[in-house]
Design a protein that fits this description.
The protein is an alpha+beta fold. It has 24 helices and 12 strands.
Amino acid sequence: MTLAFLLLAMVLVLAGHAFRLLRWEQFVRIYERPRRGIMLRGLAGGYAINTVLPLHLGDVFRAVFVGRRMKSGIGFALATVIMDRFLDVWFVAVGFGVFALMGVGGAAAHAAARYYLLFAVLLAVALVVVVALRDGIKRICLAVCGLFNETLKLDGMVFCWSLINTFKDLRRINLLRLAANTVLMWAAYLGSYAALAAAMTSAGRPMDLVEVFSLLFGQTAGDLRVLLPGGVLEGAPAAAYGVLLGWFLVPLAVMWLATLLPAQVRGVVNQATAAAPAGESYLNLLPQADPQDRAAFLSQYFGLQNKAWVDRFLQMNQDITILQDYSAGSNATTMLCMDKNRTFYRKYAFGADGEKLAEQLHWLRAQQDRLPLCEILRTGEEAGCCWYDMTYDPQAVGMFRYLHSNPVEKSAAVLHQVLDTLEEKLYRPTAVAADPEKIEQYIAKKVDGNLQKLHEARTLHELMAAPTLWINGKEYKNLNQLGWLFAHERLRELFAADPVGTIHGDLTIENIICRTDDKGWYLIDPNTGNLHESPFLDYGKLLQSLHGGYEFMMMTPRVTVQGNHIDFALTRSAAYDALFADLMADLERRYPDQVDSILMHEVVHWLRLMPYKLSRDRKRAPMFYAGLVMVANDAADHARR
């Protein structure tokens, strides 16, 4: 009888472990496909360690073992293990409470009941406190994690984030199935404990269900130390020791061996127990793939920075993975993303920037039959938010990269095609007379308004006061010596002769996308709301790239300012110089008497850039001011010819 009861106890405890595995995977399944073999090994290893060591250290092993093999990492695995054990506390508390009410188990059962009920109440109070004081607790989490190096700080924040979302996303779990798994798990465990008690009694050490339950979960709950002299088996027959040792260890060995079964057998078991199908969709615990992007986002979340933005960001991107952030000089964010079907670019913005992006989206839709434009896959517009997804083509690259990996002649040919197409398909068909009122608004807002912001900027106060600037060893007249360049009468006369029509508005080198297989090009990221909608603004944007070297400045990390000297390592390529010379020749051919206006629009583009750099990139703002001064000097020299 001893062996029969022992076998029954082991079969039932294995059944309990199986239902625990099914319950555990429900928490994992929200975010990724559960790997049952790995989880079963982690569970077996964790129980083995708990059998030998106190303090449930095996649960830490379980989280680390499984988390290292999961997409979401160790922090998430630990959060799911905590949730698993959190649910167990309530059942054990109820179990001891029932025993105490039934008057069985004596003083030990009553003490354990008080202990677990108090523990359960404290957990409930802690949950209420966490919910009520969640903002303060988030700041505490950030402060504590910030005590460590960047790697450990990120790991700590990911764990806290995982724990928060594991509890929060309980609503996404099939609660009926969760309850069924829990009930069946504990029914199997209680049956195993009863069978173990019978086996121990048959082996010469009388025990009942309550004593086994107290042995495993009571205040003096034991591990294999119960087999040592002085333990609860003191004086018991050797058979009793063998029964308890076998019950502890044999099921763990069976669990480990089960992961080595043939794939066909494991497949049948998975199918029978409703394993996650291959095509099932999962949320991302964090959408960012890059650790630095994750750290920046979590610092915002736990620092309570822009909570509305964080909520919208998560809502928008919960079902994708963000591979890389390509955002540059605008308030909209552009990311390379992927879902289970494809890789694509996603661009989004919130608030006033979202409204601006919606205008961009409307422009793309309106001009899609005129021009080669990016293919729009999906869009979303709502109050305070706009986003759209664009096709990703590995053969398509920005002209900056294309120019530096192909002969300049090929890039020049593409640029000529772009300008010819814009002229024929967009500028001429939409041409209208220049509006003097809009020219006045353009001068007031884009020129005078941004000059005023420069004068108010403390960062540039000393630089702007100097009559000349030394930029990388060469002397230039400062803006205060070029006032005639910005005189209203001069600007009115220049701009009144500009052609006007529908324009792209942000025709930088990077917004011209070339195919490396020479199968065409297309445009991305237009900019609306320029007031004076002249094609010369598009040409000025091209000059901001090829003349002013904007892209190279963006890649320059540091600038040094001493008095009126500004120094930075600007590496400008020969390919840029060659394409710039070709563009200037083309503009001289197209508009022989209006190049001064085009150059002035480039200066205005640099003026428009400065407030953004002063607010978002203050340390490097003097470098971009130097760029403004250099192009203004060139525009002045050209005007004097």
